[in-house]
């Protein structure tokens, strides 16, 4: 979920666009195709088109949330909160089965519903010419903050009305399982309705919000309610993935996704919206502060609000990382008679995990815990995926890491092809040659392994693996059945 790593800030400029996202960030703009007039009487045909007439304008202007988080080269820091979300997006696909009795989805007339997103300066026609360009940008960011709150409230109410209540009424899932999947989501809507109401109360007749900081300082501590919700997400997603393989559940979710209200999003995309919103608060508030002059009466309160938001998100991120660690510790499976390894159980952080291949070309799922590197093989036991430990863990304190040059090692079966993106880890008598998906993933692994080997790692140890989240295994990798 953390503050996302600080990125170089680009100058922010508003852009008119239509929204197809569910989060509070502004979507990217798009150009319009120039209109061609009809040929007049006596003309042979339309005049030859210029290059400008042939192609629409595709120039994009970055909105604030993307400008702050996406500028420059890809950030290596993806915190547990964020990584957890990326990891659990992978879900089991389900086949079409008979529809659940009694459920008729809303009509799809009009196609997928899209959200329009107007700028502050477009919403309020009588914007004072006395406002400086910096103040206009400040009001635009505040307006984006308010829009994001409204859209989140709408989506939280949508989830309750179109998913939770129908599934409960039609007995598609028992109430206890619904509570496990939806968690404390129902308690988050009043929280954001409260902030939205406060912000609306601050707005003056001309649409400006003079001071925002004191209100945020009073409201931000309520974000602590996110701790239980975010920490439970990894369990909730696993339960949802198991249940949607059932015909009634899978068909209900398919019908919902095909309906206009869902905007073609899966249920989990909606359940992950609060976490997505949470990590945006430090970004948005920092941008409001950046557009607030030091002499502005709101400057000091905004500084404290930014620090408070960063602390709260960092705390929830740390707790989410610990919860993720416990979850995977519980899903480790040991061979018959093999004892559990204390170095794994003592670890309170899962620094990273993802798919690598061994020297035989076999897929492994590798976990780098705080005190041990563990090689596993995903298998299916009953309805649940577990990770079968392959050999003794490698203690981090004895770990040696070697970067292997491309083509310098042969991997695979009988062909023994020269491999790329390989590294070697060893501890004592154990040694393993592992292959990453590509050079970038290999460097991410090397970075995290070396970070774990640092003599005195920082308190806020970065326990993420960036794009390796795409390789995470939840319920859809090739598995052995036992």
Task: Explain the overall architecture.
By secondary structure, the protein is of the alpha+beta class. The protein is 40% helix and 13% strand. The protein has helices at residues 51-54, 64-70, 80-87, 120-123, 133-169, 175-182, 188-202, 213-219, 226-243, 247-258, 267-271, 273-278, 281-290, 299-330, 342-346, 439-453, and strands at residues 17-19, 115-117, 332-333, 350-357, 363-369, 372-381, 384-389, 394-395, 400-403, 410-411, 417-418, 422-427, 430-435, 480-481. The strands form four sheets. Strands 3, 4, 5, 6, 7, 8 and 14 form a seven-stranded mixed β-sheet that branches. Strands 9-12-13 form a three-stranded antiparallel β-sheet, with helices on one face. Strands 1-2 form a two-stranded antiparallel ribbon. Strand 6 (372-381) and strand 7 form a beta hairpin. It is globular and about 75 Å long.
Q: Can you give keywords for this protein?
A:
482 residues, alpha+beta, 7-stranded mixed sheet, 16 helices, 13% strand, globular, disordered C terminus
State the helicity in percent bands.
Answer: 40-55%
Q: What's the story with the biggest beta sheet?
A: 7 strands, mixed
User: Into which percentage range does the β-strand content fall?
Assistant: 5-15%
Low-confidence segments = 1-76, 88-113, 457-482
Task: Give the arrangement of secondary structure elements.
Elements: E1 17-19, H1 51-54, H2 64-70, H3 80-87, E2 115-117, H4 120-123, H5 133-169, H6 175-182, H7 188-202, H8 213-219, H9 226-243, H10 247-258, H11 267-271, H12 273-278, H13 281-290, H14 299-330, E3 332-333, H15 342-346, E4 350-357, E5 363-369, E6 372-381, E7 384-389, E8 394-395, E9 400-403, E10 410-411, E11 417-418, E12 422-427, E13 430-435, H16 439-453, E14 480-481
Parallel strand pairs: 3-7, 6-14
Antiparallel strand pairs: 1-2, 4-5, 5-6, 6-7, 6-8, 9-12, 10-11, 12-13
Helix pairs in contact: 3-14, 5-7, 5-13, 6-9, 8-14, 9-14, 13-14
